[in-house]
Every structure is written in structure tokens, then in C-alpha cells.
Amino acid sequence: MNDNSSIEPLWRAAHGRTGDKGNRSNISVIAWDPALYPLLVAQITESAVGQRFAHRRPARVQRFLLPSLHAMNFVLDDVLDGGVNDSLNLDSHGKALSFLLLDMPLQVPHELRIHLAGTTGSPTTKPHPKETPST
Amino acid sequence: MSKDVLRVGCAAGFSGDRTDAARPVVDALIASGGPSVLIFETLAERTLALAQIARRTDPQLGYEPLLDEMLRPVLADCLAHGIRIVSNFGAANPRGAARRIAGLAHELGLSVPRIAVVSGDDVSGASHRDALNDGLQGALAGRDLVSANAYLGAEAIANALIAGAQIVVCGRVSDPSLTVGPAMAHFGWAADDWDRLARATMAGHLLECGAQVTGGYYADPGLKDVAGLARLGYPIAEIDLNGQCVITKPAGSGGRVDEHIVKEQLLYEVHDPAAYVTPDVVADLSEAQVRQVGSDRVLLRGVRGHARTDSLKVNVCCASGWLAEAEISYAGARAEGRARLAADIVRERLAGIGPLRIDLIGVSSVIADDAGHWLEAVPDSGATDVRLRMALRHTDRAQAERLAREMVALYTCGPAGGGGVRTSLRPTLGTLSFLMPRALIPSRFDFFDPQREGAA
Question: How far apart are CA B268 and CA B232, in angstroms?
Fold first, then answer.
């Protein structure tokens, strides 16, 4: 981190939704503003997302870029403990997982801060064992 | 967009959706004055297996249990205004649903509509047994098969509409096909017009979860505010002769249609965006764009299509055993420590029974993994109102029942102050999926004959 940037939670730069098919989860990450999209591509990588979900032991993390939507689609294999029919999780679909991803840290240059949504001050509310900055 | 527009309104996104959704959608379709279709999508992965179980107990059942509540308020107006109804609410018994719709029309004093029944999706019978065993590579051996259904495409729906159906009742069809079928019938598209089919497919994809594209499942107060969630308007796609669509919703209804919401739903349950595979087409979203073209109006464009695959996805449901869940609460100083101790006690008592999940609701209810890696890595956070939840699956009911007994026993044998034990035991279904050659799964439709088949 340098003097001209700050660390923000990803949800200030992007929003997203989780979907599931079997034991596979997909999570979209959509820039609030096109100007923020390159930051997402540079920092929210397959490996950073894999670390974020390390406790779910993903067999594979794939990222698909959709520049014309200023969006990325992450596909995480084998993270749902078998999926809706086999998981013991209350949320067997993994519907809450987008919010775990959207709490990832993002380094934002000051000149791009005007494009952020929301306000800082409500950081991650739950402890997370694998809090690893992705930069 | 061209003036020739087909409007497809969606009044349900799953079985259990709000049943008062259709009225405002139908009013908007009537007000538009143009050709319109109303769809209900009510069939998630497991819904059909549950319907099959219902049909085992009563051969008249097995269709959407809320069919009456969904249709009764709008059936007369749809028929009077030429709004055709297309749905998978037939579930495991499309003919039973057709019979019930005929009965409903009779009760409402309407003449019985022309109801088409789409069939071919059920591949659980003897004629497909070899193909099932091949596809599942022996995984079926010794298991209680509940249902096996292929995801059919849009062609039988389109043909039924062309033949004059006012209502098309399906079992398992792919969700977007409920929209593609009417578009094919209305515009006369060929079954290999890949770009148009792909665009209509993505229109159907945006519609198929109902209010998820009109502001439902989006709100996050202070960051993503949505007004009127208690009276959400359900979506309407205006599809033109090239398949391009504008997503909108009834005027005056709650919710919102904007670019961000449409993007979230466009990527929902998508894996490779360049190859979204349905029975009708392989849709390519790589260059898709969304653009706000009016208040609560978003245009989707740039979708392309590639030739459909030569197989159909088949979902197989089998009885898989029992799910046991049990909970107990602790409050006050050191509550989390007491809840963790309670979990350790039950774990020791049930050693060897198999995977046992632990949640500390109030600390973590859904983020953790079944194996407990997350919980192990997070120290006692000092939470002072914690509900311990434990869950296990077992093929043997007697073993599954042990969890409830151990949780109840914590009243006298566990940590101090435990209360509010609740337990549940439910039979479970497992799902297996595979691809079956399309050639083995012909789909067809026929018209329900109220004279011969009666009304219920």
C-alpha cells in the first residue's frame, strides 16, 4: 500500500450474486463503475479467491472475464460439501458465499475513490481465519 | 427494436414463490394490447422428485401443489385476452395438472381451454433403463430410484402453441425453454436459428427466477436499496423478431429494473459465459451488453448462439437416507465456550457415526464447512447468545435418530444453562446427473381431452 491508495472492502467496488449447480458454486463480481473494473481484474484473481475460500477446499477456481459487462464470473468446484442434496450446511446452496467474496480487501488508488459505493466503517463483521490481502 | 414484440411475463420463479404475483403481470400484459404469454417456472432440481413421491401416494397428485392459487386469479382474463399460459407446473404429473386446470375452468364458469400436455421427459421407465445404467455407470445399483427426468427443450412447446394450445403444461423442460417455445411459435424461427434462440434463451434466463431480475434478492440497505420489496413487480420480457429483449415490470409495482440488477441475474447459475448450454442452443454471453433504455427498462443485446449439443441433461433422484438436525442455545457470560463444550460432548458420544456438522449460530451459521476447518481455525469470540446446531446424514434411520437423543440429553448431562432444544429427522433425496443422447428422448405434445379424461 502506498500513500496514494487505501484498502477497501471489495463490496465498495463491486456487487455480485451466487448461483449453484450440484457441488459447484458460481459467484459474479460486477463493478459498480467501469473505471473500477481494471482493479478487480488485477487484484481479484483466481488465486486470491481460492485463498479466500481455502476452508472449503475448492478443487478448482476458474475466473471468466466479461469486459462488456464490467464483470467477472468465478466458478468454484467442490465447495458446497456435495451441494443441495448432500451438504449438512443450513445454506446448502451456498447462497451466502457472494458476501464472503465481497469482503475481500481491494487496494484502491485515491483518484478512483469517487467511484466507490457505500461508506467505509462496516468492515468484515465475522472473524476469518484466512484473511490474506490479495495485493 | 421492431414493432412486432412478444411479451412474456413471468409470475413464478420457483415452487413456493408468491402466489399473488400473476395479477399485476396479467394486467400489464392486457394493457399492452399485444401478443402475450404468461409463464410460471416452478420446478427446481429436487421439486420434481418430491412431486413424484406425492404421486406415489395419490396418482391424481404430483403436479404443483399451489396450482390453484397461482391460476385461479388470472385464468379467466388470460383466456379472454388471448394470453397463453406456459409452465412446468405439471411436475411429475402434467396430465393431472391439465385435468385440474380443466376442473378449475369449470368451477369458474369458463369453457374448458385447449390444454396441451408435453411429455417425453420422464426416463424412469423400462425403455430407458439401459441408458440410465450406462449414463450412471452402475451408481443406481441397490438404490431406490424416485425419479429420472430429462430437461426437454422448446420445440414441443412451440409446436403445441402453433397447433392452438391456450395452455401448455410441461413437466421437466429447461427453464429458458418456457420462453423460447413461445418466441419460436410467434416469430416462426427454425430450430437451428442459433443466434435468435440464444437471445430468447437469455431472455428466458432473466425471467426464470421471477423477481430476482426486478429487485428481489438484491437489496442491501444503505448500499443497494430497493423500494417496495413487499409488493415486488414480476418481470416482463419484450422480445423482438431478432430475439433481442427489454426487461421491464408492471407500472406501479415495487422493485426496480436497472443495469446492475440485470447483470447479477444474467450471470446467475452461469459457468462459462461463452457456453451456456441448454437443450435448445449454446448461448454465448461473451459480448453481451445491458443498457438502461427507460425507467425500469433494460435492454439486453450482444448475445450470440452456437449449435445445440446432441445430448440432454438427465436428473436422477434416489432415496438417500436421513438428515438429522438438532439445536440447543446458551446465553450470557462464556456462552460460546459452553456451546463449544456441548458440541465436543455430542461428538464424543457419537464417535464413529460419520461426518457431524457443527454450527455456532450467533458466531457462524453458514460460512463454515461441513468438515469444521473454519470453526477450528477461529478461536472463541466471546459471543454471549449462541445456538449450537449439529447435523448428520445416515442411511440408517436408527443411527440418525441418535443425534436427537444426545442433544436432548444435554439438558441434564451437558454444560450449564442449555435450553431450547429442537430436533428434526427427515428422509432425504440424492440427485445424480448425466447426459443422455438426445435421440433417445423424443418429446411430444397432445391435447388434453376433457370428455375422455375428465376434470378434477
Answer: 19
Q: What is the pLDDT of residues B227-283, one digit of tens each?
A: 999 999 999 999 999 999 999 999 999 999 999 999 999 999 999 999 999 999 999
Of B287, B357, B429, the CB nearest to A85: B429
List chain A residues with CB under 8 Å of B367: 96, 100, 126
Yes or no, beta carbons of A126 and B373 under 8 Å apart: no
| Residue A134: pLDDT over 60 | no
Residue range of the domain that includes B227: 5-140+147-315+436-453
Same domain as B155, residue B25: yes
Same domain for B383 and B267? no
Using CA atoms, how far apart are residues B367 and A100, in angstroms rounded to an integer? 8
Angstrom distances, CA of residue B323 to CA of A130, B293, B319, B397, B421: 30, 49, 12, 9, 17
Residues B187 and B53 in one domain: yes
Query: Are B134 and B204 in a shared domain?
Result: yes
Q: Whole-angstrom Cα distance, residue B275 to residue B159?
A: 26
Cα B7 to Cα B438: distance, rounded to the nearest angstrom:
30
User: In whole angstroms, how far apart are CA B59 and each of B56, B90, B95, B261, B456?
Assistant: 6, 13, 11, 42, 12
B125 vs A: CB within 8 A? no
* pLDDT score of B44: 86
Q: Is A122 left (phi over 0), alpha (psi -120 to 50) or beta?
A: beta
Q: What span, in angstroms and rounded, lies between the C-alpha atoms of B151 and B264?
A: 24
Residues B302 and B330 in one domain: no
**Entry pTM:** 0.94
For chain B, the domain total comes to: 2
- Co-location of B280 and B158 in the same domain: yes
- Closest chain A residue to B223, measured at CA: A118
Residue B160 Cα, gap to closest chain A Cα (Å): 30
CA distance B36 to chain A (A): 29
The whole-chain average pLDDT of chain B stands at: 96
The answer to whether residue A64 neighbours chain B at the CB level (below 8 Å) is yes
**pLDDT(B445) > 60:** yes
DSSP B373-404: HHHHHS-----SEEEEEEEEEESSHHHHHHHH
A59 and chain B in contact, CB less than 8 A: no
- Do B288 and B399 sit in the same domain of this protein? no
ipTM, two decimals: 0.95
**Domain shared by B275 and B372, yes or no:** no
> Which residues of chain A neighbour B260 with C-beta distances below 8 Å?
15, 30, 32
